[in-house]
Amino acid sequence: MGKAEGRNKDWHGHVTAITVAPEYRRLGLADGMMKLLENVSEKIYDGYFVDLFVRVSNKVAIGMYKKFGYSVFRRVNGYYSSGDNNEEDAFDMRKPLPRDEKRESVIENGENNIVKPEDL
């Protein structure tokens, strides 16, 4: 599931959620869904990039997104929280689209670019 959001050079596709049931994993379904959202973000909405947020502890998902061409843009402190004061940081991962000719939507070493949720 996704949407288009932002303004000017922040106009982009955003992956709201992607889930594949365990018995259907490793069949290329996530890859297909991501490519579809990227294609819509590029061809229909003329976005600069596609982004998503993922828990820093979710190494499997991070590896999958990197395989799909995403890189960490920044780390968001306490992005995920629960009612019992447990918080977890998220990586904001991005993949530039052809409109971003200068690749301004990605940065090197984004893991070290730390922000708070209220600064998003």
Automatic annotation (TrEMBL):
Residues 91-106 have a biased composition (Basic and acidic residues). InterPro entries: Acyl_CoA_acyltransferase, GNAT_dom, NatB_acetyltransferase_subunit. It holds the Pfam family Acetyltransf_1. The keyword Acyltransferase applies. GO terms for cellular component: NatB complex. Keywords: Acyltransferase, Transferase. SUPFAM superfamilies: Acyl-CoA N-acyltransferases (Nat). It comes from the Eukaryota. One of its GO terms (molecular function) is protein-N-terminal amino-acid acetyltransferase activity. Transmembrane segments: none annotated. Residues 1-98 form the N-acetyltransferase domain. Residues 80-120 are annotated as: Disordered. The keyword Magnesium does not apply. Signal peptide: none annotated. This is Nat3p. It comes from Rhizophagus irregularis (strain DAOM 197198w).
